[in-house]
Amino acid sequence: MNNKQQSPVKKLLAIRGMGAALTAFVGLVIIYIAFGLINSAVFSGQNILNLLRSMSKYLLIGIAQSYVLITGNIDLSIGSMVGMSAMISATLMTTGMNPLLAILISLLCCLVIGVVNGYLVGKFKLPPFIATLGTMFVARGIAYMVNGNRNTDAIATGIGKEAADKFQNFFYYGKTLGVYNTFWIAMIVFIIFFFVLSKTRTGRHIYAIGSNVDAAKLSGVDVVATTIKTYLISATCSCLVGLILCAQAGMGNMEAGNMYEMYGVAAGVIGGVSPLGGTGILLGTLAGAAVWQTLENGLNMIGAQVGIQRVVIGVIVVVAVLLDVVVRNGKFGKRK
Amino acid sequence: MNEIIVSMNHISKSFPGVKALDDVHFELRSGEVMALLGENGAGKSTLMKILSGVYTRDDGTMEIFGKEYGDLTPKQAQEVGVAIIHQELNMCRHLSVAENMFLGRELAGKFTLDNRKMRQEAKRILDDLKIDINPDQTVGDLPVSKQQMVEIAKALSINAKILIMDEPTSALTAKEIEDLFRIIRKLKAEGRGIVYISHRLEELAEIVDRVTIMRDGQYITNGNFADMTMDQIITNMVGREIKEKFPRVSCEKGKKVFEVKHLNAGKMVRDINFSLYEGEIVGFAGLMGAGRTETTRAIFGADPKDRGEIWLDGQEIKINCPMDAIKHGVVLAPEDRKKDGLCTKLSIRQNLALPNLDMICNGLGVISSTKEDKLCEEAVQNLRIKTPNVEIDSGNLSGGNQQKVVVGKWLARNSRVVIFDEPTRGIDVGAKVEIYNLMNELKKQGIAVMFVSSEMPEVMGIADRIIVMCDGRITGEVMAQDTTQNEILTMATSFENKKIVS
Hints:
The complex is a heterodimer of chains A (about 325) and B (about 500). Chain A is mainly alpha-helical and about 325 residues long. Chain A has helices at about 10-15, 20-40, 45-70, 80-95, 100-125, 130-145, 160-175, 180-200, 200-210, 215-220, 225-250, 260-270, 280-300, 305-330; strands spanning about 175, 180.
């Protein structure tokens, strides 16, 4: 990438990871139009609104996983934290607790899991796959336990009805400026974390650790603290998605967020985040989440069965990574 | 100028099983280039890693700019003004030049990183050094020589007063070395102290003021470079008179077994030609990075060959992968036991059986435990592997015994050519002699033995004929009886386009 000529396009392309992100956006447009040509309902205003709303969940999960992937680690506990957050907030609200307080307690619980992940991986050097596999089971177990191994009743009944209605509107059913709130929440989170990753010291250190952890350490980067931060960010985003799922269902479901950690990997990887660490930008994750949701939505709209949907999505993920590997090998020669 | 800026006294450091440094002295003055010389494993890098805070010392004192320091961390060392440019370059290849230079001490505004300022500052330093590198370039896309320049620029951006360069020229071309020397002279003129570690003795005259010589983890001497002859330096580096216990058996030299013709593979294997005969051990001498390991790997089919022919017993054979080599009876005991030689988490039994599974499995691929037991028993007995049983993890064995397992993998087959790459590295004297005896045994059986070693005494003591490599080429061939270490060292440092000093 040579950016001696500073034309805006070249300047944009000179940003590392932008190439992969833009490729994903191009893919997104193609997929969207293709589905729209088959079934024009894909282009309808209501479908676009639905698309934006359901994409938001995957975007938040994608951000969570991308932060961890860029350091070269992985967080398998994301889906379980989503379930935990949904169950804890729902259970507390059915007792009539103020939603704000319920949210706070859910967040706190997720952050505890995040800290544990961060310490196990950063401080005690456990393989992230193992460490977060453990917390994945623990968090899911907690999700089961909070309401005695049962899903909760509807949150908008009895004493807390009014507050719970507000909660559901705020996170899922309400609109601002004609678009569902869920989308705006995801956008605000996206902008904050996009900024953190690309413009701050913490962000720089996250890339450095993923690129060469020894060099980072010898340059004075606090590897442990930075690793913990990535897992805390992952936990925060997971908590938010749990709240959204709780608002959507109007109750707590013990299986909420099942497999979401993998959806997060998929969103990141489609957008050019390398699971080997060091590369990828959140714009790519945004594109990846959109591709993912457009596929799901489009396949639904043209009447594809769940089975074929899974197959298509699986193939897309592998092809995206395959492209990444081929491009890398071409660019950097043989990898050791 | 010329004040003492670093003074290290009585420094000792042990690693498990090895005394890496023993009561070492080191002194550096401002405005000078100090060459730190010694053979592989003399402790040069270890000493410099202590100075730069990568390792902590066991004993001794360290003064920098007249102030005594205890254990430094890398970050503290940087703050004091010590910067080290490691032999294996240590950069984040995904980040840009400017990002790497300021890693760990980024300049920041109120909320965001001040990328513009960092880029400007990086540009200023690079311009100052007259290095033509764009600060926005991704480091992974730069050639090694440029990456090294970036490391130097990084050291200067923290305003390092003491620069340690560990083998900085090992990957550079003649032109790039010129560039590097220009920069070193400039840094010297600014009053910085530079420690220069290199195996390329012929380039010292260009920039070095003083030398410190180490050997086997001990301080030997220091002095002005101008007052020393190259012979004195080499004698001090190599030291001891060589009459150690190297068992030698004499055999009748038989017919030609193996021949390599015009072998080329990448940069480090260039037009290699040699033959191996029955009843002789051929030593491959040279400095680290001379291309010997690469040559063995290319012969064995572990790395791709660009061109070249391989002949065995008068017939050309094709080796495209290790399996081909093994089928023809050409086997390799690789340099890095733990990485390439053994599956350290598997048992001795599993390791010994691995390349021989074709011989001990029945038609369905089921392993016959009787055959496997027999194979293991023979290997343990023949090689005197010291272990209570063969179920122990091979990673838990001592270095010498590990090496025996590596060799044992191949002895069950009727090998014709056995290639040993640094078989005695990191193992104790007794085990070394056993390895030598093993090679002698193969030699007596008429098996061709190729013996790569960086330790001059053992090559001279064990090999019958010695081939010397430098920079990926064969630069000489001598009979072990009628050569001297100095002659070999001269051939091992005869780089292209450069004259030998002295």
